[in-house]
Amino acid sequence: HWVMSDFIQHEIQRIRKLVGPKAQVIGAVSGGVDSTVAARLMTEAIGDRFHAVLVDNGVMRLNECQQVKETLEKHLGINLTVIDGADLFLSRLKGLTEPEAKRKVIGSTFIDLFEEEAIRIEKAAENTPNAGKVEYFLQGTLYPDVIESLSFKGPSATIKTHHNVGGLPARMMNGQGLKLIEPLRELFKDEVREFGRQLGIHEDLVMRHPFPGPGIAIRIIGEVTPERVAIARKADHIFISMIREAGIYNEMSQAYAGLDTNRAVGVMGDARVYGYIIILRAVTTTNFMTAEPYEFKFDLLKKIARRIVNEVDGVARVTYDITSKPPGTIELE
Ligand code: XMP
Question: What is the ipTM of this complex?
Answer without folding.
Answer: 0.99
